[in-house]
Here is the input.
Amino acid sequence: MATSAPVIYDGDLSDWSDSERIDNAIESPPGYALYARPDGSSLAFAFHSAVPIGANTTFWLNTDRDATTGYQIFGFAGGAEYNVNIAADGTASLYTGAAGQTLVLANLQIAYNADHTVAEFSLPKAAIGNPPAIDVLYDVNDAVFGPTSYSDKPFTLFNDTGIAPNLSTKVGIVYSDTTAHQYFSETAYAQLFMNAQAQAMQAGVSFDLLSESDLTDLSKISQYDTLIFPSFRNVQASQANAIANTLQQAEVQFGVGLIVGGEFMTDDENNNPLPGDSYSRMKLLLDATRVTGGTGDVSLQATDPGGLVLQNYASNEVIRNYTGVGWNAFTNVSGTGTTVATETIGGQTYAAAMATQTGGRNVVFSSEATMADSNLLWQAIDYSAQGTGVSVGLQLTRQTGIVAARVDLDSSMYAEDVNPLDGSPGVYDKLVPILAQWKDAYNFVGSLYANIGNNPAQGIYTDWTVSLPYYKAMIDLGNEIGTHSYTHPDNTNLLSAAQIQTEFADSTTILNQQLSAYLGHPYNIVGAAVPGAPETVATSTEIMKYVQQYLTGGYSGVGAGYPDAFGFLSPTQENKVYLAPNTSFDFTLVEFQGKTIAQAEAAWAQEWTDLTSKGQTPIVVWPFHDYAAAAFDVNGTGTSPYTTQMFTDWIARASASGSEFVTLADLADRIQAFDQASVTTSVVGNTITATVGSSDAGRFALDLQRQGSSVIQNVDNWYAYDTDSIFMPASGGTFTIHLGAAQDDVTHIAALPMRASLISVAGDGRNLAFSVEGDGLVTVDLQNPGTDLINVTGATIASQSGEILTLNLGAAGHHDVTIGLGADSAPVITSNGGGDTAALSIPEHIAAVATVVATDANAGDITTYGIASGVDASLFAIDSVTGVLSFKVAPDYTLPQDSDHNNSYLVNVSATDSHGLADLQQLTVNVTNANVAPIITSNGAGATATLGIAENTTAVTMVVATDANRATGDTTTYGIVSGADAALFAIDPVTGVLTFKAAPDYELPQDSDHNNSYLVNISATDSRGLADLQNLTVNVTNVLGIVQTGTSGNDIMTGTIEPDTLSGAGGADTISGLGGNDILNGNAGKDIINGGVGNDRITGGAGADTLTGGPGNDLFVYTDVADSGTTATTRDVITDFEHAIDRIDLSAIDANAGRGSLRGDQAFTFLPVAGTAFTGAAQLRYTYVTVGGVEHTIVEGDVNVNHIGADFSIDLVGHQILTASDFIL
Here is the structure.
């Protein structure tokens, strides 16, 4: 508030201004005017009358501004707690009750002009309780009344508040719970509320979110340039007057403007009109009232050719047409307002948007849709908060707008879509290359939302081994992964709170775990995309409990809520961002509405136009599906109803418009940063000083508005801007901007890449240094370099056209870049002493000579090395990049090739910069006679080699070496020098044959770490001690099992865990198969055979053998009746025979030896009942005997016709119930 000089009470109105008049020409009778203002500890009044002011002139004071309390003038008006009444002698005193009724304070200070038509008087504030504001009525001589009708609104004087105004530019956006509860949809109200936030972002004006309870707090609402009411039709009846009074004081005393959509404070909490004139508050605060309304076809047109509010519309330009919608029409009460847009219904035209002034600058829209649907609100905010002169706004992007693509990975939980069983490409085999192509062509990134699935039996699950590589590829392209829920429910509004927690909290946890483990570093899912049907605001609120940063929900647009629903759902939910797609889903257009590809593309194109037309920096959230962009057949029809090209066309259009592609996490982060930012500006002539308070503004721009043809000429000590915007550093700061007709010729950043965050900039107008986080191309407008060189560090020069330099930052990350302009200097060779000449000595047989090194004072200049001349130049080569100089053929001291054959070679080398300046050095290379070490050429000739040999053998390899000195009598000796397993090897020093001292056993590795990988280092040394070394790794491979035959003695043979063949050769052998399916033969002798684990084939052979099969299906083989005798001391014993698991093979024994025509290999007949006697040859029976308390089952066979008894028998330990299947008969 402005501070006025003390009032001089002299009956002279010359020290009063029109702004201090509290009535107006309409409300007061002609010739009358009432002025008032605070004056220190008093309230000063000045009154002009058309007639002399006489006795019973009264000023009625309603100090609580409640017309229902206090004295009722004429029994119905005023509600005055006090009155100032003038007596016949001209004195003025303060009373309560009726005029002059009860004295409170006599003889107030008062002064008149000569004819008593002007009076000035002083009223001590303390005498009336020092109220914040007073409503005033007056009557003159009990004959003239102001206002003319006491039923009209009174005149208001606002007292000093002690509130300091806020110097920053900021608006308050008001959320009305009362209106939301009576709105046609609370969800739509939330969308409308966020639309106002998005439009404030477009205007570049910082905002706070307010509730109804804030509207009676003058200390709060006075801090805003403008209050925005997306819809405030309904208000608590008990609060209506208090809110209206506070708003009026904010308007009048602090110049706060109001922006309103539709009817304003007309109805109570029950949707009933407020008592009396329900439009009185609109009239008081907005100077507007409703004329009419109804339902019909509406055409909106701009009528603001001067650009008072709408800066970029032609006169009568159509804004939008509606069909069959509800509408309201308002009019300006005082006639002083300006209609900036009209609406035509049935041939009748009304005001659709008006600019009025009741203290601050107001804009009144005829409906919420008029305000929200067509990028009008941001222009109203700019006008109301910043006026009609040059202003600046803080923008979320340095480009023309923001595009955040939301990609729902609906196929992600269908395992066969991701990895088809027939081996054909899956949906992400197609999508990932498409994303890569879009990134390469358009720098496109987006957010991709995955489901998990929980029904493996139906193929609805995530195979992480398949999916995670795809997700990593998506992330590596700069995209974001979020959750689309656990199971993709069709309608989240039907879920319980517990189900919502499962869908979004659990899916987030699992995705975080899987991605973090696969990527090798923490990955944090910060956002979720709601699947299925659009959710209500109640559902959104519940889901947002389980997201870290943001939620993207159902489509919101014209006819389905309101477009641009970006921001915070309510003032109590400013910790998380909500982002509603404002373009149609691909599925909606193609599969639900049945549009063709061409029709769908046309619909998208129209939506793009509607969303971006007349926008400052519009935000577009574009939703589509993985299967659609990949044109993947998910319905089994063999084709897709979508084409990839329709999506590429969409991206190409956005790219051509200059929009910035961001992830939704990036967008949410920017919105939160914007919410926390502040901007304070002042404009003096062509100089703008702006202070941006922020800790995360590095992707933002401070954008000029209403600057006309002027451009940014320069910015004090700042070198990052284009013609109309300053690129912000992350930390904000203060910027002094000078406007002019053209830009000064100073070196400055003119463009930064998408998504890059500017950290700092320093310069002097010619040289430049800056730090940035990100990747991509930076455009720098150089000061005219003349003949100076451009030296760049921290980036590479992608191109240069005149003074425009394009730099490539390289991979994403932090980059510190410097650009310097300076005179060109030649390189200086510093190697080999750095002089014009140098001499070197090298031994023969070595090609390497030296590395030429040069410095260049011009940072970033490129040095090229070369051979300039010299009598022996043709014998040399040099690497042009590294400067490595070498002989083309290694010199031989005994066969010199230099021009005079004295082993002194002459060559001149050069170092040349990219502009042709060079330094030369003449080298003399003296070759000396030198011994050359042998060179091992075997096993690849490298310093290391790996060999593989089979176990059970000793031979490893033959080491071979060459020696250039061998022709002169040098000799080579081979040896073992080291290695962890060197002790296990031997080498022939003459032949180089390397062997194991003992053949290695794969099953019993002897190497140091017992992994069958043996390490040994071998050498080849000449007679003068020079040597070459080679580190060998000898990997021993497994040979399955062993084959072993014993001696004629009593052998002990043990197999391996693999299939072995072990055979005795006489004597009492002990044979153990251990593991594997072994073949074990005892042959002659009383053998002990144990098959061990596995399906073994055991043959005892002659002698009373003890046989144990061990675990597994074992086969005991008998080939002759002599293999097992008939007595306890001569028969074989099988210790662990298992019925139905093991078998006895008797098929090689002729069961009926020598029986006439039956001679041959006859099979036995098994007698199944234990103890059954033989009745003929070729029979097999079994009986039970008990020996030492242990029962044995004796199997006996009869092979002849004498029936005397068994010809062989086998003892099975234990009581066995046998069947024919236990034998191979």
Remarks:
- Residues 497-519 form the longest helix (23 residues).
